[in-house]
Amino acid sequence: MTRTRPGADVHGFYATLGIELPDWARTEAPARCFADPDAHKRQDRDPSCSVNLASGAFNCHGCGAHGGAYDAALATGRSPRDAIDLMIAHGLTQRRDRSREASPASTRDTSPTAAGNTSAQAQATRRDQPAANATTRSTPLPAAPKAAQSCASARPPSAEPSPTRDTAARKNRRQLREYRDALLNSAGLIARLRRERGWNPDTLKALGIGFDGHRITVPIIDEHQALHGILRLRVDASQQPKVLAAPGTKLGLIPHPHLEPRQYVLLVEGPSDMLAARSAGLPAIAVPGTHAWRGEWSRLLAGREVTVVMDCDPPGRQAAQRIARDLEHHAARVRIVDLAPQRRNGYDLSDWLKAGNDPRLLTTRSERHRRLLTAERDGWTIEPRVPQPPATATVQPRRPSAAATASVSAGTRGMGCAAF
């Protein structure tokens, strides 16, 4: 009999089976379905399977195949004996100490039934029934790569797992480079993104933005350049939802504030607005959604001058107030800008920039300088072009509403609220 051990090397176990899991995943790692790839379009090109990084259990959200680590080994062509040996070698289980057994009949049981019960215990939080036969399907299961088979048969149970997580990290970086190169080599898509969204190719390259064949990929990187996840943005309006997060993604600010050296930054709603703003020369950082903001992120902006620019709708304005409340304890100065106070339809920074407004209106610190800008006529237009009123060229401080007064009061340090 076997039992689950803490600190198991799930990445190494699956790598031995020929299945690379992304290193940036924290709890659930995405993978292409290996139990029945023929049941998916294009061999499950868009991964529909997830692997639990604590227990090694897998679950395909497309075809429904699921099981424990033992079942995964069987699904990739391993024998029951090899499956148990691999689990032991990677810390997913351990043999029963036979010296303590009272009955001589209690020999090591490597049958699928016993191992299936073990895998079901490891997944107790996810299912109420054993999963030993969950991957049994009419379609023949694919065999494991020969290199992986020979590696497993040559490794004694006590050997260190290989390949390590460094190998998975290198694969993730390589995949991101492939996505980035696919986008940069697609002249038609680059031209379309520039025309429709105002995204500059240099900005896309600098932030590692790519294309996976269906959606735009936006990596979430920490201050050490480690990958924490990927957001996938739609290309066409028909694609729903607007943004998808790869399984296992840990949300964060994009780009990480430590990677933005400028003292003055804009917090904007979503990666699309961030890309449009940075393409226009603004030091923008994206909050990945109105409900994604976390209070601890405010510490990453300590000592900065921050302007919060969210979408013109109730969720966006509520998020702006919530973000400002958290920032007032850490940032040197906080200001909320409402691009179109009369609108409630989600009018955003990308729309504002496409309307021909000058981005310098968002970066100038003084209201007097802002009024001077709106009076200039030196070859460029800086009057806000919002289709609905107010159609004024002057940026005036707006008196905070009753709801805003609690968070953006006159007594808070360096906080203000402005409307265009």
Largest sheet: 6 strands, mixed
The neighbouring-strand order within the major sheet is 12-11-13-14-16-15
State the domain count.
Answer: 3
What is the terminal separation in angstroms? Answer: 70 Å
- Rounded to an integer in angstroms, the radius of gyration calculated over CA atoms is 27 Å
Beta-strand proportion: 15-25%
Count of strand segments: 16
Which parts are unreliable, with pLDDT below 50 for 5 consecutive residues or more? 101-163, 372-414
| CATH T-level fold name of the largest domain | Dna Topoisomerase Vi A Subunit, Chain: A, domain 2
Question: What attributes characterize this protein structure?
Answer:
420 residues, alpha/beta, DNA primase DNAg catalytic core, N-terminal domain, Dna Topoisomerase Vi A Subunit, Chain: A, domain 2, 3 domains, 6-stranded mixed β-sheet, 14 helices
Structure description:
This protein has 420 residues and is of the alpha/beta class. The protein folds into three domains: 2-163, no CATH class; 165-245, Alpha-Beta Complex (DNA primase DNAg catalytic core, N-terminal domain); 251-420, Dna Topoisomerase Vi A Subunit, Chain: A, domain 2 (3-Layer(aba) Sandwich). Helices cover 30% and strands 15% of the residues. The chain contains 14 helices and 16 strands. A six-stranded mixed sheet has the order 12-11-13-14-16-15, with helices on both faces. Strands 2-3-4-5 form a four-stranded antiparallel sheet. Strands 7-8-9-10 form a four-stranded antiparallel sheet, covered by helices on one side. A hairpin with a 5-residue loop joins strand 3 (49-52) and strand 4 (58-60). Helix 2 (69-75) crosses helix 3. The longest helix is centred in the middle third of the chain and has 20 residues, at 165-184.
